[in-house]
Amino acid sequence: MNSRVTMGLAAVLLLGAIVVGYWGLVLSRQPAPVAEAPAPAVVTVEKTVAAAEDQTRQPVVVLVHDVPPFTPLTAADLAIEKLRSAPAGSLSAIDQAVGRTPWRHLSAGTWLNAESFEAGGALARMIHSDERALAVSVDEVIGAAGQLMPGDYVDVLLYLRQDASNPQQSAQIVVPAMRVLGVGEQYGLTNDGQPATPALSADDKLKQDQRRLTARTVVLAVPEQLLSRMMLATQVGTLRLAVRSSEEQRLAKYWAGENQAPDKLVAANSQLFQFTQLALGAAPKIPPSGEHSSATRPAVEVIRGNQITQQNP
């Protein structure tokens, strides 16, 4: 009997030891509660950094959705976005835009400034007050093999063929250093340095560049004083656009805005006589051989429409 009791007690102790060992193993695998303590500190630091950055950002009024022209803006059309650097001239409060009427279509996401409510399209905002935008028909040869880009400067060359009304062929620069505003559907920057057309996706930009290579129109910024001359040149002969070097830095110091601009316009117009004479079909008079200049009576120039004749009194 004593041996059986002893064996029973040993079995009970062994079972208790197994239970205690298992329970200790389970408790040792549970994470210590102290390990979770740093989490609140990390969240607090992130919130502090975000709050500090938010204070340095500047509010900008943007459109929530597309707005058609001549539609007064409401508070529901607008939202405030905080940017690290606000665009120059942008509105910073919704009250500054509510009730105002845009003159052109504005797309969603557009940030608003004073020019958003001014009349005139993108092309009108690309030229100065003493310029006019004029479209010129081009082909692969006239348009410099399709390599023209908005912002380039070109000389407009005119070639007059020899015919019955023009006995002497001529080639000359009609207007020098004119700025290219647009090629086909691609336009450059407005006077405030913003893109004239909305930003395109990568695929749309690739398609636009492909269409530019085959464009059939180029829009030029023509000084107002030379507009008639440029228009006449497009009608009487063959044009060529000669691209000027970028080393001239014409875009940085455009001559229509320089102090010596009037002198350059006068210099360009100084070549107008021969151009007008050839374009209107009046050939230079060559006195017959053997005649003395003293015996030649001065002729009277008579202009009828686009015809010039010389008549002796």
From TrEMBL:
InterPro entries (alphabetical): Pilus_assmbl_Flp-typ_CpaB, RcpC_dom, SAF
Record domain SAF: where: 58-118
Segments for region (Disordered): 286-313
Coiled coil: none
Domain of life of the source: Bacteria
Name of protein: Flp pilus assembly protein CpaB
The organism of origin for this protein: Pseudomonas kribbensis
Gene responsible for this protein: cpaB
